[in-house]
Amino acid sequence: MSSSSVLQGRTALVTGATSGIGKAIAQNLARQGAMVVLHGRDQSRGETLVKDLVTQGATARFITADLSDAEGPLRLAAEAGSVDILVSSAGLYEFTPTAATDAASFDRHIAVNTRAPFLLVGALAPAMAERGQGSIVLVGSNAARLPAPIGAAYGASKAGVEILTRYWATEFGPSGVRVNTVSPGPVHTEGTQAIFGEHLAVLDSTNARGRAGDPAEIAEIVSFLAGPASSYVNGAVLFADGGERSVLPV
Question: Active-site residue numbers?
Answer without folding.
Answer: 154
